[in-house]
Write a structure and sequence with these properties.
alpha/beta; single chain; 11 strands; 15 helices; three-stranded antiparallel beta sheet; globular
């Protein structure tokens, strides 16, 4: 679990590249020490459970964050924000600015100017095409592609080191990639071929560096090593998918692992979630994601708003909406996260968590004194239950179906009085499961964002920051 302590006691460790191997498999001379949380580099985010958000450098986004207010109820202050570095190597992120690399350069500068730590989602294994398991596999086995990949990674890391100038910059590595590999191809990362030799041919790594094998495990470790070598101020980690398991012990339902309790029941279903989560953790660990003192692991929720995808009638049939979770489903997610943390002993950051709220919230807008308007289930105004689960809320479940779905649950933190459902904050549950913070943000499609939800989310965040949770890392 995570508990209270001072920053100095939370995290300490060397700011160096490690070269000893914790992997005894034959033929691997790569650097791959499995790091405990105490070995990771210290972060300004370590002292409290932090909340951040996706945020572009658009005028709209920057104006939102710069609209400071003396009243803590209406302030707009968060310690971290993130954007994607993606698009491939021809016409990708390096061309999205007046000069080569401006996307990353300006993001770091503007984040620091607003008192925020910048995070980059490095998402280049798909290249410039659409993401898929087959496409990712083909790319990592293509020597030309992987040479360009390592050169692109080094270019970003040079910016991170130069512009960071000793200040921390976060990097979230390759969403979905390892999940695709586990779900579709192998449970043994050392048995799947990948091109790592091009990193040496490109000069990103040299003969003086460890010689990483041409395997999936070698690739992950080479990426971690390159980051630690080229940008010591970077705090990084890999994204872990809740859908990564192919069903090692239990069949995964079509609506996802976190809905397995719908058919198996709470006790049996939650046990199944933990069993599959343990297999996921072991795969990612064997893949080497903890090498080079990786700071965090990042776990998402599909990047889908509850009513924005596969949802035809959230008012009268919310249970049919695949990603429109109630608190029982969110507690399954917490069980998954807890198992990942137990196996990896590395703090978790929930990432790309939807921002939308549940309609008919009884919470009042401090700007107006009124309750918040209804989200109409249209682009950028979809409902979701994530922030309700995290921060707590009371709302009117205005149909019998919604009363039953959101009110009749096993979660001890959820209560029902007529059509009013009250959800208590679940921050302590998340902290107990090893979660160190949350980076909220719109995922796929036109999801609800911080500037399209009438300020409900940012108001809840500012309320939280009046009395933030103080953390200590450790089991």
């Amino acid at each position: 679990m995570l508990a209270a302590c001072s920053l100095a006691a939370c995290h300490a460790g060397p700011d160096t590249v490690t070269t000893g191997s914790s992997d005894t498999q034959t033929g691997s001379t790569a650097a791959s020490p499995a790091s405990s949380p105490s070995a990771a580099k210290a972060s300004l985010l370590d002292d409290h459970f932090f909340i951040g958000s996706v945020s572009e450098d658009s005028t709209t986004d920057l104006d939102f964050w710069n609209a400071y207010a003396a009243d803590p109820d209406t302030a707009r202050q968060i310690p971290a924000r993130y954007i994607y570095i993606n698009g491939g190597f021809n016409g990708g992120w390096r061309t999205w600015g007046a000069q080569d690399g401006d996307r990353a350069i300006n993001y770091i500068r503007k984040s620091f100017s607003m008192g925020m730590i910048p995070f980059f989602v490095y998402y280049q294994i798909p290249g410039g095409g659409g993401e898929s398991a087959a496409g990712d596999l083909a790319n990592i086995q293509n020597p030309t592609f992987m040479k360009d990949y390592f050169l692109d990674l080094k270019f970003l890391l040079d910016i991170v080191k130069r512009e960071g100038n000793g200040k921390e910059v976060g990097i979230i590595l390759e969403p979905d990639f390892l999940g695709y590999m586990m779900q579709n191809y192998t449970l043994d990362p050392s048995a799947l071929a990948a091109q790592v030799a091009p990193a040496y041919a490109a000069g990103v790594l040299t003969s003086e560096d460890p010689q990483f094998p041409n395997t999936l495990k070698g690739l992950v470790e080479a990426i971690n090593y390159t980051i630690a070598k080229q940008a010591p101020n970077a705090l990084f980690g890999w994204q872990v998918n809740i859908w990564a398991s192919p069903g090692v012990h239990h069949g995964i339902p079509n609506n996802g692992l976190c809905r397995i309790t719908d058919t198996m029941g709470i006790a049996a279903g939650r046990s199944a979630v933990r069993e599959e989560a343990k297999e996921v953790a072991l795969f990612y660990k064997k893949a080497g994601i903890l090498s080079q003192n990786a700071k965090w692991v990042f776990i998402d929720k599909y990047g889908l708003d509850g009513t924005g995808n596969y949802c035809s009638d959230p008012d009268n049939n919310p249970s049919a909406c695949i990603w429109f979770w109630n608190t029982d489903h969110w507690n399954n997610y917490v069980a998954f996260v807890d198992e990942i943390y137990k196996e990896l002993q590395t703090p978790v950051v929930m990432w790309q968590i939807p921002i939308g709220r549940l309609n008919d919230s009884l919470y009042r807008n401090p700007d107006t004194g009124q309750t918040f308007p209804v989200l109409q289930h249209i682009a950028r105004r979809h409902e979701d239950s994530a922030a309700t689960f995290v921060f707590g809320d009371a709302f009117t479940a205005f149909t019998t179906a919604r009363v039953d779905y959101f009110g009749n649950v096993s979660d001890a933190g959820t209560g029902k009085n007529g059509s009013t459902v009250t959800v208590q904050p679940h921050l302590d549950d998340l902290i107990g499961a090893g979660v160190a913070g949350i980076l909220f943000g719109a995922g796929t499609g036109l999801s609800t964002d911080f500037d399209s939800d009438d300020n409900w989310w940012i108001t809840k965040v500012q309320e939280y920051y009046k009395n933030p949770k103080i953390l200590q890392s450790g089991n």
